[in-house]
Amino acid sequence: MKPLTVIGFLGSTLDASKFGPTRWSKWRPSVGLTMHEDLRVDRFVMLHGTAHKRLADYVAADIADVSPETRMDLRVLDLVDPWDFEEVYGKLLDFARSYPFDPEAEDYLIHITTGTHVAQICLFLLTEARYLPGRLLQTQPRRGTSDGAGVWTTIDLDLSRYDSIATRFAAASAESTSFLKSGIETRNSAFNRMIDEIEQVALRSRAPMLLMGPTGAGKSQLARRIYELKRLKHQIKGPFVEVNCATLKGDGAMSALFGHRRGAFTGAIADRPGLLRAADGGMLFLDEIGELGIDEQAMILRAIEDKRFLPVGADQEAASDFQLIAGTNRDLGTAVAAGAFRDDLYARLNLWTFALPGLAERREDVAPNLDYELDRFAEREGLRVGFNKEARQRYLGFATSPEASWLGNFRDLAASVTRMATLSPTGRIDVDCVEAEIARLRRLWSASAGVDGDAALLDAVLGAERLAAIDPFDRVQLAETIRVCRASRSLSEAGRALFAVSLARRTSANDADRLRKYLARFDLDWPALQTV
Amino acid sequence: MIIIDGSEGEGGGQVVRNACALSLVTGQPFRIANVRGKREKPGLMRQHVTAIEAACAIGGAECEGVTVGSSEILFRPGSVRPGEHRFAVGTAGSTNLVLQTILPPLILADAPSRIVLEGGTHNMLAPPFDFIAKAFLPLVNRMGPRVEARLVRHGFYPRGGGRIEVEIMPAPLRPIECIDRGALLSVSASALFAGLPLEIAERELKTARKFLDWPEEAFAARELPADRGPGNALLLEAAFEHGTEIVTGFGKLGVSAESLAKTAAQRMAGFLASAAFAGPYLADQLLLPFALAGGGRFTTVKPSQHARTAADIIALFTGRRFVFRPIEDGTHMVECTT
């Protein structure tokens, strides 16, 4: 064991006594703590005011008698008002910062029995914050006796050292993680580990979080559960506001997010507070944040950092204090490299980044999620539906096989369950129903992939009749062009992306015009692609 | 390396002190595991740490695990350094326990020593200074060395702060026999008090009179300076031709003056009624010097478990054993064999 240093205040009341032999029959905390056979104090740093110098010397002399091992280190710490928190904390902080602590070589006990309550609180706070790198020491008189030594105990603020408390924390933490998983007993260890981390971050940090993952991986649901967990723990009061940035396009985006003043632009017939204001005191979930325009990104960054932003057409900034969770299915790092996403905003979001795996990467979680979806269906429709044993085996067999790509992730699973449950009026899903569903899923996933994917896209944009008039040779090019257009915020941006190589060679002057003309060949224009 | 299991036998602290003393005398290192294993608060307490530190200081020893609460200590003796030493003992400890630890190596050293001990001189954890000076040290001196102890200042529990000075002229120990204590020469009962009312001392003396048929002038209250207090002890002394016994009652909170005086007086009366040379405390203390002398014997009332444990430790270091044997007059003969 290392030498022990005790740091504490001289108790101007508790340590005071008559100047005579009877003082030894009175419990004096500072003297008493040096009288124990099982506590050897090698150094005692005793803080006292100038006014109590005589008492300090008297107490120090008595300690020298009962504990010659103890080196007394009297320090004057004058407090104008020992009940003033700001003053006491500030002066104790100065003391703590100037004291040459060496926890490798010495142990420290912080005596909190003497001093005003404010002093005790400050000593506690400084110890908890590790400015005072020790344990707390509390002393008390031995009841019903005139024993001068009293009783001593230490308080270790590392709660994990207390079995019963640690058990309760573990239970509460398990409860919280289970809550984040909506009670689904997921088995995928990577996912469970990630949820454990999210639980800790959610309860300890107000910093933004970034949830990455493919569409349908459950980003939105998780964001909502994080919000609800924080609200349960009284860490957040305001509302949960969810926005899909992909739906914010053009001029409306600014105004939807940051609000506008009446008359700011044509059609602004009344003040609009905006989604950021709505999230004040609560949580804002910006899904598909990679779709946000560059200007909006700048505003969002300022809103995160300064909690202030300028509504459209306003002269004065508005304030909103919200916690941010962002979701994305794009790799934002690549978007930053391509200049489509601000690196400073990305840096701000990239503190707590969690990648949600798709369902295909969590095959062991299909079964618990299947049960969860059946429960949700029962809640929604008031009808409890279950599988035949054989049917369940067949479905899970397919669902966990490599053949099941789960392109739409949990969204696909939810839809699949809804279909099977709806088509099973008796409340039992049988093998036939499952076989039919497996066929549907196969079609769905094959249609979404490759050339069939192009067909589905073009069919949606042009309709079957017009599609039939287009050569397969043109279909591939048109499908890719439409995809780029949809991922871009303007015709010009899409043009720059599509003719990037020509642009680099400076062989193309007007990409937007070139794109417009190409689309016109198929009777398509920019607005048409944005609305469908 | 001598290995001792501290949870065996009686008297945890005594094992530590005797082991240190024996190690310094014999030059053998030792390790104690489960220090004070049977106690409510196991491990080393402050007073033991102080005693071991004192042993290190006079013996140039190297130690490991010498901290409060430690359950295992390792002690490697160096060469004994006689001369001037000063040790201070905390509140509950006793100067006499430190003396017990360092005296054996110093009386066998190659030069005289002068020791100053500060702390408790009269507290319930150890025999008081008067016992050491009048009952124990005269017998040590009879074995060869010359040890003189002087009480400069009393130190009572809880304050401590007393001071004793000990002069040591070393000499080889020779065996002696303490069988017959001889005729009773004088008796005295003194009630020491400091910072407390005289009435306490008077009540103790009054109670003691009931159990001891001693002449009136043997009883005296003795007031010490109030700033030494609070403190109180009743010292009952019986001086025989060949030895002296002192029985002490310590005043402490929660024990009435009458009660402590009665206990002490009955113990003294019991000793007077027996023919034993040494009372139980003296018997404990004599074992070590007798073993180092390599022989000798003494009579005592009834050997305690404490004494038997001490004899076991002594045997570990010296190979010398004690035989405890009841004899016809109701006392016990304790004999050191080699």
Describe the protein's architecture and organization.
The complex is a heterodimer of chains A (532) and B (338). With 532 residues, chain A is α/β, with parallel strands linked by helices. Chain A has four domains: 4-157, Rossmann fold; 172-355, P-loop containing nucleotide triphosphate hydrolases (Rossmann fold); 359-448, Helicase, Ruva Protein, domain 3; 451-531. Chain A contains 22 helices and 15 strands. Chain A has a six-stranded mixed beta sheet with strand order 3-2-1-4-5-6, with helices on both faces. In chain A, strands 8-9-12-7-13 form a five-stranded parallel beta sheet. In chain A, strand 10 (308-309) and strand 11 (318-319) form a beta hairpin. In chain A, helix 17 (450-468) crosses helix 18 and helix 19 packs across helix 21. The longest helix of chain A is centred in the C-terminal third of the chain and has 19 residues, at 450-468. Chain A is elongated and about 115 Å long. The mean pLDDT of chain A is 88. With 338 residues, chain B is an alpha/beta fold. Chain B has four domains: 1-80, Translation Initiation Factor IF3; 82-174, UDP-n-acetylglucosamine1-carboxyvinyl-transferase, Chain, CATH 3.65.10.20; 184-273, Dihydrodipicolinate Reductase, domain 2, CATH 3.30.360; 281-338, Ribosomal Protein S8, Chain: A, domain 1 (2-Layer Sandwich), CATH 3.30.1370. Helices cover 34% and strands 28% of the residues of chain B. Chain B has a four-stranded mixed beta sheet, covered by helices on one side. In chain B, strand 7 (146-153) and strand 8 form a beta hairpin. In chain B, helix 1 (12-26) runs parallel beside helix 3 and helix 2 (46-59) packs parallel to helix 3. Chain B is globular and about 55 Å long. Chains A and B meet through helix 2 of A and helix 2 of B.
